[in-house]
Design brief:
Layout lengths: L13 E2 L11 H8 L5 E4 L1 H14 L3 E5 L6 H9 L4 E4 L2 H10 L4 E4 L6 H11 L3 E4 L2 H11 L8 E5 L19 H11 L5 E5 L10 H17 L5 E3 L16 H15 L5 E4 L3 H4 L3 E11 L2 E4 L19 E4 L10 E7 L8 E9 L7 E4 L20 E4 L16
Parallel strand pairs: 1-17, 2-17, 3-4, 3-10, 4-5, 5-6, 6-7, 7-8, 8-9, 9-10, 12-14
Antiparallel strand pairs: 2-11, 11-12, 11-16, 13-16, 14-15
Helix pairs in contact: 2-3, 4-5, 5-6, 7-8, 8-9
């Protein structure tokens, strides 16, 4: 018998008692009762529903939620409730998860480099028809492993490489075909595709609406050079959200630029796709941590860069924060900047911030950090054994709103 055993990097988040309550509690009430000594992830379903509904209402095409951003089933259900019926998956596990939750979902395998087994499973078991590629080798692999073509409904989408941009996370180095290669791939894929597409990604947390204009101009040049009929133009993700030191243009500015650029391309038979992730779920989760020790202007807390606060480490993201002290009087009205240290023994487990909190913040206090619905809990590791966390659903709104992502009351 094989001694190999599969193991996830971290165990699933444990759900607290609040899940079964008919009406959702507030974060402050939970902390007062539970007094958690492990990090507590507070999911705001209403905020995710509102953000998803706003994007679906504003985007002139199909909205594909990027599952990698947050694959928590409760998050996926909220995205679905907001009107999203298309899902951008990057692995066989993500495909299986979405299909288990939503029998009617349209699943698109958007990773440009896939294992043969993942292709077979997606096509044969989960009815996935659309596959992204950026090389002739990947095209050959998809055709061989699906045994499919245009008559079988196969969708093939070519990932176009973009020049390095100004997004917080540049995505130009790993994937994408150069324009001349993309032309050849479009021509090669067209005879096999019931749906032929071209996709790009301007980078994550991109603050410039004109980045999409420039990318669509390049895509237009590739389409004209290929001289093929294009069924799908996928403008990717990267739509930004607000953080304490980042105030992006409203969602409408990005969608208007995309729509105007698309009209200039004059592709009447082409459907637009988008792959938002952060834009739909960032405001939908916070994490409550406890202060283990204070040393000057440094706070040692029970979550960190190896947990759900990866973006606060080397990338230097700042998150909205507030102190929770259920008893012993109100905290000081004076605020000061703190840096945070996570619970591991690694000195790199450091979040410089600054995070502005009451000047009398002390051991035993709880701190809530918001805008962590994107790439928060899903990047947790089991390093040093600090992999315990809980998940609760709460009625609170997002700690920091982003213009255009919340529905009007």
């Amino acid at each position: 018998m094989s001694q190999l055993r599969s193991r996830a990097a971290v165990s699933p988040l444990r759900r607290a008692f609040a899940e079964a309550q008919p009406s959702l509690p507030a974060v402050d009430d939970l902390i007062a009762v539970e007094r958690p000594e492990d990090p507590m992830h507070c999911l705001r379903p209403a905020a995710i529903v509102a953000a998803a509904a706003a994007f679906v209402a504003g985007f002139p095409g199909d909205v594909l939620y990027a599952v990698k951003c947050n694959p928590e089933p409760a998050v996926l259900r909220a995205v679905y409730e907001g009107g999203v019926r298309h899902f951008d998956c990057a692995s066989a596990a993500e495909v299986a998860l979405v299909r288990t939750l939503f029998a009617d979902a349209q699943i698109h395998f958007m990773h440009p480099v896939k294992s043969r087994g993942a292709i077979r499973e997606a096509w044969g078991r989960h009815r996935v028809a659309d596959f992204v590629l950026d090389s002739a080798d990947e095209l050959a692999k998809i055709l061989a492993e699906t045994g499919a073509g245009a008559a079988d409904g196969l969708g093939l989408v070519i990932r176009l490489a973009l020049p390095k941009g100004t997004a917080a996370y540049d995505l130009s180095g790993k994937f994408g075909a150069a324009p001349d290669e993309a032309v050849e791939l479009l021509r090669a894929a067209r005879p096999h595709a019931a749906r032929l597409g071209l996709s790009f990604h301007v980078g994550s947390q991109c603050l410039d609406p004109l980045a999409w204009r420039d990318a669509m101009e390049l895509a237009g040049a590739v389409i004209r050079a290929a001289e093929v009929t294009l069924d799908v133009l996928d403008v990717g993700g990267g739509f930004p959200v607000a953080y304490p030191d980042i105030d992006p243009p409203p969602l409408g500015a990005f969608l208007a630029e995309i729509e105007a650029s698309f009209e200039r391309l004059a592709l009447p038979s082409t459907r637009l796709w988008a792959e938002p992730g952060r834009a739909l779920v960032a405001g939908g989760t916070s994490v409550v941590v406890q202060v283990l020790m204070r040393r000057g202007d440094a706070l040692y807390v029970n979550d960190g860069v190896y947990g759900s606060l990866s973006d606060a480490g080397a990338p230097g993201f700042r998150f909205p924060v507030r102190l929770i002290r259920p008893e012993d009087g109100a905290p000081s009205a004076t605020r000061q900047g703190f840096e945070l240290f996570g619970p591991t023994c690694d000195s790199a487990d450091r979040m410089r911030g600054p995070f502005y909190l009451p000047a009398d913040t002390r051991e035993g206090d709880w701190i809530e950090l918001g805008q962590l619905g994107a790439y928060g809990a899903c990047l947790r590791t089991a390093f040093n054994g600090f992999d315990r966390a809980r998940l609760v659903e709460v009625r609170d709104g997002a700690m920091l709103e982003t213009a255009g992502y919340a529905l009007a009351a």
